[in-house]
Amino acid sequence: MNRLPSMQNIPKPNPLHTTFKNHNFPANFLNETNVLDYFCNPDNIFYDMKSCNQVIRMQQIGRPLEECLQSMAGEQYVLHFARPPLFVICKQQRNLGINQNIVTPLAYYYIINGTVYQAPDAFSLVQSRLLGAVAPLGQAFEQMLKFSRFNVAKGYSWEFDKKPAPEGDEENDDEEDEALLRGGTSKKKADSDEAAHIAARSSTFQEQRTTNILQLLFEQFPPPSGVPAKPDAAAAAAAAGAAADQAAAASSAAGAAANPLGGLAAMLPPEVDRSNSFFESVA
User: Fold this and answer.
1) Which long-range contacts (C-beta less than 8 Å, at least 24 apart) are formed by 171-178?
2) pLDDT per position as a tens digit, 143-171
3) Contacts by residues 261-267 (CB-CB < 8 Å, ≥ 24 positions apart)
4) What is the CB neighbour count within 10 angstroms for residue 124?
5) Which pTM was predicted?
């Protein structure tokens, strides 16, 4: 036979998550004189029926409440702050001794527009703030793990170039997956592999080496003042001069082949007399 749970086993609700409001008492009638009576309601979950306030209420002592509380030891409720519509009630423990009156605050309650709340303690406040900060940090670490890479030679590294695919590309991703299952290669993967191979084979300097070399030559050996210092024009002029030299060399080689001895007269120094009949016959 199942037994009903006893009242001692039922967990108490968290006081930070509960409130109290007396709907029979208008909130706009609250002031400094009656707010403590509003709080000391038997239906209020925050009110202890064993407190000194309840003893004074039951004995109906005619003296002021504060005067009675100062001469009693135990848990008490006093008005700590009042500025309508905000009121703060302090729950304190008073200990009486020889020539001493020790008061220790236990909890604070605030009333706003007739609703009673318990003020959170320092531990609950710090715990709530830490939990609110740890949750986004956990999500950030989960996102960072997606970009971490490990290589046996290089160790751990980060790769932030790849971005998550937008929602509209889900169909394209499905098609690429089907192509991979059939044994083929997706277009994105092929393009990325080709770009990676090109980047690995050549550098920026190798791709633009001609322009860089010409620029360095013109900086080391500047042209005369009359010649414009433009790499393209200088290259064209150099190419034209080389073509002219090649044409002259070709024409001289052809003349030497036609008349081998004619080249001998051209090689003589200028002081040699070329009016000799031998040279005239050779020419």
Assistant:
1) none
2) 888 888 888 777 888 777 665 545 455 45
3) none
4) 13
5) 0.47
